[in-house]
Amino acid sequence: MIIQVTDLKKNYGDLQVLKGITTQIAEREVVCVIGPSGSGKSTFLRCINQLEEMTSGRIVINGHDLSDPKIDINKVREDVGMVFQRFNLFPHKTVLENVMLAPIKVRKMPQDQARQQGLALLKKVGLEDKADVYPEKLSGGQMQRVAIARALAMNPKVMLFDEPTSALDPELVGEVLTVMKNLAREGMTMIVVTHEMGFAKEVGDRVIFMDQGVIMEEGKPADIFADTKNERLRSFLGRVL
Ligand code: ADP
Ligand code: MG
């Protein structure tokens, strides 16, 4: 198990957003998280990535207990890459510079090595010909692929995706999902919050249905998307499928 989450709770003031999440993610597993807006999906990812501090519970990533006061949170965070709905690339840096930045700044990687790696990653996401252009010249789908390359540049053990295609025009969704699919095939451990049920069915090893701050259902895609008895899941799927 590369990620173990035990009774994770998160409050914002009086609002309890995560009400006790327990799950494990195995190495090389692709877990798709679905559920209605406001159910706590983003908060769940943000707790795993330490963008939010949990209120209580336990998260262990690759053997590191996040609540252990002695651990170096930044080191653990380096193992976890994240891709958001919006790409937030640095606008005044070229595509290649965007991908090179973190390894140089955080890992102290030599410039040449970072460049080689950056070019290889851009090739992987099909954008080697865009290395020297600025983000404003890219389509949303291309920007999101750069964002994926940038996250991969830190050589993470796990990749978290928070609705990576939700902000894209429909015709650009496929190219991003293809890159994610290839990544999954290569054995990357991934947690993907998505409304792309086709992707969840085809690529997901497991689907987690979150609702009102809890994991309401969890299982193999075939079982989750089959005729479920759970009324809330059924109604959610009725709305998105
Ligand atoms: P989802 O990603 O499933 O749409 P979120 O995790 O974004 O859900 O949000 C779950 C709930 O937590 C929502 O009610 C949202 O308004 C609330 N929430 C999220 N972030 C914050 C925050 N920083 N402060 C207060 N409330 C928040
Ligand atoms: Mg969200």
TrEMBL record:
SMART domains: AAA
Keyword Transcription regulation: no
CDD domains membership: ABC_HisP_GlnQ
Keyword terms of this UniProt record: ATP-binding, Nucleotide-binding, Transport
InterPro entries to which the protein is assigned, alphabetical: AAA+_ATPase, ABC_ATPase_HisP-typ, ABC_transporter-like_ATP-bd, ABC_transporter-like_CS, MetN_ABC_transporter-like, P-loop_NTPase
GO molecular function (one): ATP binding
First and last residue of the signal peptide: none
Domain ABC transporter: 3-237
Cited Pfam families: ABC_tran
Cross-referenced PANTHER family: AMINO ACID IMPORT ATP-BINDING PROTEIN, ARGININE TRANSPORT ATP-BINDING PROTEIN ARTM
The protein, known as: Glutamine ABC transporter ATP-binding protein
Species for this entry: Brevibacillus reuszeri
